[in-house]
Specification:
The chain is mainly alpha-helical. The chain has one domain. The protein is built from 19 helices and no strands. It is globular, with a radius of gyration of 22 Å.
Amino acid sequence: MTLNYIWIGFFFVSLVVGLARFAGYVMHAHLDMLPGLVFTAADRDVFVAMVESTFEMAKTSVTIAITLIGVMALWLGIMRVGEKGGAVAVMTRLVRPFFRRIFPDLPDGHPAFGSMMMNISANMLGLDNAATPLGIKAMEELQSVNPDKDAASNPQIMFIALNTSGLTLIPVSIMAVRAAMGAANPADIFLPILLTTFFSTMAALVFVSAAQRINLFQPVIVAYVGGLSLAIGALLWAMSNMAAGRITALSTFGGNFILFLFIAAFLFLAWRKKVNVYEQFIEGSKEGFHVAVRIIPYLVAMLVAVGVFRASGALDMLVSGVGSVLGWFGFGSDFVGALPTAFMKPLSGSGARGMMIEAFNHYGVDSFAGRLAATFQGSTETTFYTIAVYYGAVNVRNTRYTVVAGLFSELAAIIAGIFIARIFFGG
């Protein structure tokens, strides 16, 4: 029900804000009232912008779905080959001890373990196009053991919470944008993003584990989380001693090489088992079209609501209000310029990217606000988009506390990002 209220709230809040802006324009321009305030043609045409955004977002939703058809056909085909060749089973055994404890409701040895591992690996490498179809595949497998097909299961909530927390090792796209906009050191946000996304992921894990009464102090969980922490620490140390250009080149090569290595390994293992690789790939690919079409209504619903909320000016008011409140409590205002990126990120990835670039243009790509905006952009995933796509793919309507878990990790990323950016960049 949470998503239902949030979705309705987007429209009603947008209506109230739009009416207030239009009424202010009328009183200021025609009735000589509100002399201390400034209203423009944008306030007069606010409902034009809101309605236009509904058409634009509906179009964008279909465009995304069409783009997903090919990508999903590819990766669902690859996953089918991996399943038949035994590669997914190998990956399942690697994560089985850890996943068995944070997904206690999932049967031991379930194929969803492999799909979830592939999805999380793709996200960590910054390979979004590969992560989405793998995530949908995992959701379908989790849905097969969901006792209530209309409501999100505990494993589905845990998976999406970890997914939206966005653990990313190498933010290649953000470094590329910073380089294109003339940053002195495009990779200087690498360490802040890595640390921030680690905290957001830990926040998601702790929140959902508390809700599902999972004991995180089990030796196996401590060992896996501790090992990941040490690995990230070692990567931080290695990257801190590299030149910016080398980091970008190495991360670009490494991410794509590992991904292609997965594909080659899947094909080889299937061939060795005498599987008809081509036929299995075709069979798996056929699912891609049906899944992509099935998520269109969910995408339209969520993206249209987000577009209206943004076009009404409600997001800008929210950002300025939060900045003012935090200023009163002595938190300073150096981070306010980056808040639009943080607040847009749960709603729209492209919107957040636009906000980040806007911060670069307004404050400077190497300013504190610009670097913090880049940190926010790289530290989490788009909560509402992910929920719409993943739950839409399996026709789950009751998302239970998934939204709250996702937003909790987003909040953790904002708080951690501000403190970490201040340590690295001052402010």
